[in-house]
Amino acid sequence: MFVSKAYSQSQKTNLPAIYINTDGNTPVTSKEDYLKGRITIVSSDASEKLDMVTEIRGRGNSTWEFPKKPYRIKLDKKYNIFNLPAKAKSWTLLANHADKTLMRNALAYKISNFLGLEFTPSVKFVDLTLNGQFLGNYMLSDQIEVNTKRVNIDELDSTVVDPQAITGGYLLEIDGFAASEPVWFTTGQGLKITVKSPDDSQITSQQMTYIQNYIADFENRLFSADFKDPVFGYRAKVDTTSLVNWYIGCELTGNSDSFWSTYVYKRRNNDKLFFGPMWDYDIAFNNDSRLGDAVNKLMRNSAHNPRTWIEQLYKDEWFQQAVCKRWNELVNKNMETELTDFITSTATLIDQSQQLNFSSNLWPILNTRVYQEQFLFKTYAEGVNYLKQYVKNRISFLNTALKYVEPEKPSEPFVTDNNYYYMLLNKKTKNAIAVNGSVSTENAALVSWTPIESEDAHLWSVDLVGNDTYRLINKKSGLAASGNGYNSGLTQKTINTSDSHQLWKIVAVNTGNVYALQNVSSGCTVNNTGGSFINGNPIIEYTSGLVSGTTGYTLISENQQWYIQKLQAKLSSIVQYGSNSKLDAYFDAETKQIRVNFSLSLEADVAIGVYNLVGQQLYGNSLKGIQSDNAIDIPASSYGPGVYLLKFSTSKGDRITQKLIIK
Fold first, then answer.
1. Edge-first strand listing for the sheet containing 184-186
2. CB distance 294 to 254 below 8 Å
3. 587, 595, 591, 565: which is closest to 641 by C-alpha?
4. pLDDT score, position 571
């Protein structure tokens, strides 16, 4: 028989009042054992009034240790309490003791609604009196459970044995406190998962095996080599809409427990895992000092472990793009105003109640740390204003942090263009490799210098000589860059086709089209000594540093990484003045001669010369040209590989310059 003391039952503020009296006014001291009693709701809205037999017990983990405790109630029969959507027996009364605004959970559920998650817990603020003792402001909400108006999945019990039927439904929680629950398991990646439904008294071994294997399959796909593949990877096993929305909810709320406690569920005959509902946000919105000031911190990097799944998910460019796209949609739906207006209206709604809650004879804790609060405020209004500012600042931060940035692609193999000169620019300093001092001098040192595009000593012809091997020829001197061994400075030398110190491999490394210049003789790579920005800093050979991987070579030191910038067009193959002559010249590799064919419209005196890029004349000849086709062979066996100029002129005023390449 129910017996309780009689108390005056009336509304204390504009909010509905809930009165719960246990049988014999027995104190509620357990989270496991229900006490029988009676619930009465007093409200100015007649449709909200209630007088019913109920049961009550404690709930929560760390929150149960607070002096203002949260509770779970179980009505005598299923009922739409406060006309809320779910017709159910089980409901929760959240104390929000560590949240001095009393509305962080309510704000999170507003966000859940805005995101469009399938189920969002209801919110109803009340004043609670238990066994005649006024406990202050509480938030009545749904119990996270299977229900057509809650988590709408099939409810399994021990009678369901058909292999197709046991495919769902399952309500699970990735749960840091799983070890204290009756039914839980650990995944291959070490995540602890509690089975919330089927109930621990109903779940069969076949059902348990099925859901463990299903989660293992999802997790194995997520961590497989093909995890990004839409068919063979994780996406084939997850409802991506709920996944993306849930993750955005984690980041927008800044919930430090986002991955410590995560609800997921699976339907019958549906191979997808759904994420949600959102639950438990009293230490969210920068209310957890263990993270420090977290306005500008991503939860996937900073929230409490296990972050195992989200860290792997964010390695998938598809997921990054999906999050970015959805975030932009939400921002464009006036999200910031929606949320800040909700905070303002909620503060107005509960103002009378919060004054009683934080009064000197109840919970005078506004400026007292009761758990892990990051900030304390002297007044309730200051805490509310901070919450609004947090939302604005958080959205601003996430506008940048969730923006999808195309990852840099691996550096592409270098392909030279013989029609251009190049600058060799150090990645760290952006300085160019240049010839120091007397630029035409044999053995002049190569140094780092602030790049000057008009300075020929800073420009190089990058000539392919075979087998991905190059010779670097300075434009001004016409001499080749030469290595001199480990830790020795580079110099320029006369081109020598048999000297491997003058030959270089151009190795694509890392990302962003940067390269290592590796000497063929020593195997060392070109290094800007000490990473110095000073003009004249020596360019040396140093330990290779090249590491071969599945996607190519990597090189750690930026001192050894180089941009090869195409900069200045070389002389065109033919520069011609006058129209009385035609010229065609080429190097014949077999005879080691330069074959010169020219045609004259009129008989004329002809002068032919061959010059290197420094301007030195290597050959000269004068002859009589006839009116027709003419030919001459110039011995070139002594010419080293490189670029030369053939100059042709006639007594009729024709002037032709042609570039010759000898390899």
1. 184-186, 192-197, 170-175, 261-266, 273-275
2. yes
3. 587
4. 55
- Residue among 390, 393, 383, 392 at smallest CA distance from 350: 383
Strand partners, 481: 492
Query: Where exactly are the structural domains of the chain?
Result: 17-142, 420-569, 574-662
Name, in order, each residue with C-beta under 8 angstroms of 410's C-beta and a sequence gap of 6 or more: 508, 510, 511, 551, 552
Cα distance between residue 93 and residue 56, in whole Å? 10
Beta strands in 431-501 (DSSP E): 432-435, 446-449, 460-466, 469-474, 480-482, 491-493
Residue 378, SS3 per DSSP: coil
Question: What would you measure as the largest C-alpha separation in the chain, in angstroms?
Answer: 134
Fold: same for 420-569 and 574-662:
no
Stated pTM of the model = 0.70
| Half-sphere exposure at residue 515, Cβ-oriented, CA atoms within 13 angstroms | 20
Cβ-Cβ contacts under 8 Å for 241 (sequence gap 6 or more): none
In the sheet where 581-588 sits, what is the strand order?
581-588, 593-600, 629-635
The answer to whether the peptide bond before residue 306 is cis (omega within 30 degrees of 0) is yes
CA–CA separation, 516 and 509 (whole Å): 7
User: The tokens of 236 are what?
Assistant: 């084939």
| CB atoms closer than 10 angstroms to residue 108 | 24
pLDDT at site 4: 44
Q: Is 44 helix (H, G, I), strand (E, B) or coil?
A: coil
The tokens for 505 are 């491999």
Fold of 574-662: Immunoglobulin-like (2.60.40)
Bond prior to 121 in cis (omega within 30° of 0): no
| Pairing mode, strands 469-474 and 17-22 | unpaired
Distances (CA, A) of 426 to 355, 511, 561, 587: 65, 15, 6, 35
- In angstroms, the CA 9 to CA 608 distance is 117
Find the angle CA(232)-CA(238)-CA(239) to the nearest 5 degrees. Answer: 135
Rounded to whole angstroms, how far apart are CA atoms 656 and 576?
4
pLDDT, residue 7, reads 57
- Please name which of 160, 142, 162 lies closest in space to residue 150, comparing C-alpha atoms: 142
User: CA torsion angle for 486, 488, 493, 497 (degrees, to 10)?
Assistant: 0
Nearest to 620 by CA among 607, 609, 632, 631: 609
355, 134 in Cβ contact below 8 A? no
Nearby residues of 341 by Cβ (< 8 Å), 6 or more positions away: none
C-alpha pair distances (Å), 115 with each of 97, 330, 404: 26, 8, 19
The residue written with tokens 């129209």 in the block is 579
Instruction: Split the chain (663 residues) into runs of 10 and give each run's mean pLDDT.
Output: 56 98 98 97 98 98 95 98 98 98 99 98 98 98 98 97 96 95 97 98 98 98 97 98 99 98 98 98 97 97 97 97 98 98 99 98 97 96 98 98 89 90 96 86 95 92 91 92 97 94 97 96 97 97 93 94 87 56 83 90 91 84 90 91 86 82 78
Architecture of the domain whose range is 420-569: Trefoil (2.80)
